[in-house]
Amino acid sequence: MPDALQTALTRLGRSRYMVFIDWTNDQTFTNNVWTRVKKSTQSTYTANEETEDFGYIDSDDDVTELVGNKLSIALDQANIDGDPNYNHLEQMMVDLPTGEDAKRPILYCFGGSSMLAVRGIGTFIDKELSPTDKTISYSVSVADKVAGTYEVVSGAPVFTPTSQTTTTP
Fold first, then answer.
1. CA dihedral 139, 158, 156, 127 (to 10 degrees)
2. pTM to 2 decimal places
3. Largest distance between two CA atoms of the chain
4. CB distance 71 to 145 below 8 Å
5. By the 8 A CB rule, do 103 and 121 touch?
């Protein structure tokens, strides 16, 4: 019989973490058409914490405070003609968009049983096509972040916010 203090643990594989991009670019988040990034060979979610040192009078040492985060998501998209993400990224490589044209809604869904997610407006940066590696590498700098939960209904994520927008400094 299992010990009552034991907690069932589940190792979360890479397929449990999902990234969705709305290539229709509905930045109002009312009618998003989410496309899941499936053929990525790497996915890294980075908080990019910003710190500041303060010399408080009650301490002889400076104290480092966390003052902000600049969320980014790095991905490698496999070069598969017909994959909607590849085709849109390929077009970005040709058009080289700037400003608002380089932004798309993005949704990052965590893999745990709590069904946590972060939604925001992503600026697509650091795009690099490698025919040798058969990938397009890119990063998405996420602003106007909203934390929430998600469920998948008929193959598409439905996001429910649980916090207010946090703007990127």
1. -10
2. 0.84
3. 62
4. yes
5. yes
H or E segment at 106?
A: strand 103-109
Break the chain into its structural domains and give their ranges.
30-51+61-161
In residues, how long is the chain? 169
Condensed to tens digits (0 to 9), the pLDDT of residues 12-36 reads 888 889 999 999 999 999 999 999 9
| Distance separating alpha carbons of residues 65 and 63, to the nearest angstrom | 6
Q: Which helix (H) or strand (E) holds 117?
A: strand 116-130
Q: Which of 21, 9, 10 shows the shortest CA–CA distance to 109?
A: 21
Distance CA 49, CA 44 (A): 15
User: φ and ψ at 7, to 5 degrees?
Assistant: -115, 135
Tokens of residue 141, six digits: 């700098």
Residue type for 44, please?
T
Neighbouring C-alpha atoms within 13 Å toward the C-beta of 109: 25
Tokens of 133: 């590696």
